[in-house]
Fold this sequence. Notes:
single chain; FAD/NAD(P)-binding domain; 3 domains; three-stranded antiparallel sheet; 39% helix; binds flavin-adenine dinucleotide; alpha+beta; 14 helices
Amino acid sequence: TRLTAWADSQQFAAEVEQKLGTSAAVVTQFLGRSGRAYDATVGTFLHKSLHKAGTYFSPETLKAVAALPSLGLTGTMHARHEKAFANDPRLVQLFDRYATYNGSDPYQAPATLSLIPHLEHGIGAFYPEGGIYAIAQSLHRLGEEFGVKFRFNEPVREILTAGDLITGLRTDQDIYDFGLVVSNMDVVPTYRKLLPQQPAPERTLGQPRSSSALIFYWGIGREFPELDLHNIFFSADYKAEFDAIFQQKTVADDVTVYVNITSKKTPADAPAGQENWFVMVNVPHDEGQDWAALTAKTRRIVLAKLSRTLGVDLEPLIRAEKTWTPPGIAADTSSFGGALYGSSSNNALAAFLRHPNFSGRLPGLYFCGGSVHPGGGIPLCLLSAKIVADLIS
Ligand SMILES: Cc1cc2nc3c(=O)[nH]c(=O)nc-3n(C[C@H](O)[C@H](O)[C@H](O)COP(=O)(O)OP(=O)(O)OC[C@H]3O[C@@H](n4cnc5c(N)ncnc54)[C@H](O)[C@@H]3O)c2cc1C
């Protein structure tokens, strides 16, 4: 089955009715509910610290509390989708995929996460000109306008303290005096490497991690008009795929493959007549697995699957190749285990178990990024920075 998941919810619902059989009204109703859940909770759960008493005494929080019974804290995402689309396993699978947007498992994650589709079909997706990196460049420019001094290629080795006070940072080049520090490094290595003398919140740091990914960057020597900017090739057995990731901590024999091709929107991203493929498969975070073997296996599976679906022998078309593995992601970004989204949301209380945006023991120490509240993914990481800015000011 081939389905176009239009951003426009009416168009998407009509496409589902035509290709899969579930009535457009059922899809629209589901997306409407997803939107209402989002509106009721976004102010409290995503825009504010959950660890400050003030958050719990606002009209927005009352709205979120009133909506709690309908949010689905007790059932799983998958169960909610099965109930909504009873006779349509392919539609259930399509909606289950939204759990991967924060590295979670739809068979464990609470139905609350069923509000994620609203972001795509209700609010809409955005395409940063110049790629995702353009967001970092914009922040850099904005920071400079505000007088921020940037020091690149100078990793922080230690956050310095005196008693309960933050006194500065140590790098290989220098010691800097600061009374206030915001760590954007994953919270696990922040404690283990930068604050080794301080007691760490072990229960928080021990929360199950989100999934990681294997990425194949392929320069493909021809164009595929049947493909678009975002393409998903689903596996036949989604349960087996998530069990492999979260229970067996390995890669299943059939996997769901995401292929992103920015040259579809920005032709200059690839040579004329060719395409730049970002090919991603969700895998467990690194716990010492044999990644050379798992990468070779996954590459084989992906090539066979895409070749079969596209009716072409893909491997000879690969003109350039680079691979990124969970240990590589961990080494390049300091993300613990190479998890893409900090701790997973495979638990109804996950939102409350993430590390706060501030230290309870060391006034002057703050945290932002995917491993702390409100969680991983670029939009939430940016919101974490906004929460920290609000807390400090
Ligand atoms: C392949 C891949 C695909 C993804 N796809 C999506 C997607 O489609 N949508 C989405 O929303 N999210 C996606 N994510 C997840 C998203 O990128 C992360 O959740 C997010 O970037 C985490 O932000 P962060 O600020 O916590 O960490 P990072 O973006 O990793 O930034 C941390 C920065 O801190 C630096 N640093 C670390 N330690 C130190 C130190 N000691 N001193 C100085 N600097 C240090 C690192 O070098 C890094 O630049 C994806 C991630 C990957 C890897």
